[in-house]
TrEMBL record:
Coiled coil segments of this chain: none
The species this protein was found in: Stappia sediminis
Protein name: Carboxymuconolactone decarboxylase family protein
Ranges of residues in domain Carboxymuconolactone decarboxylase-like: 25-107
UniProt xrefs under Pfam families: CMD
InterPro entries: AhpD-like, AhpD_core, CMD-like
Length: 115
């Protein structure tokens, strides 16, 4: 799926996720705790962790992952050059399909850079 408006995509996905969280509150809370712990302070800073998550999102071809982790990478101060290098690693690991999703990830990041 080619997303044309990443911010609108997140708004729509947030609404769907809110409904899902209501139906599986325990699982949703557990996932929230995993995410908070995984991205929190540690040996790697949050920006680096978000770049890793973005690269994984590219290799598994997850539009939602691209949207949320591109936005978070921008929030944590990632530069466009850092995103490009993360995309390069994803392409190395994921081949041609990662090239396509890498382009999508860059479009997502660009849409959140100036927020």
């Amino acid at each position: 799926m080619a997303v044309s408006d990443w911010q609108d995509f997140i708004e729509q996905t947030d609404k769907r996720m809110a409904d899902l969280r209501k139906g599986i509150p325990g699982v949703a809370q557990g996932f929230h705790e995993i995410a908070k712990s995984a991205i929190g302070k540690g040996a790697l800073d949050s920006k680096t962790k978000e770049l890793i998550a973005l690269a994984i999102g590219i290799t598994v071809r997850c539009d939602g992952c691209l949207a949320y982790h591109a936005r978070a990478a921008a929030k944590f101060g990632a530069s466009r050059e850092e995103v490009m290098e993360a995309i390069g690693v994803a392409v190395y690991m994921g081949g041609g399909p990662s090239m396509i999703y890498g382009a999508e990830a860059l479009a997502a990041f660009d849409s959140f850079r100036d927020i």
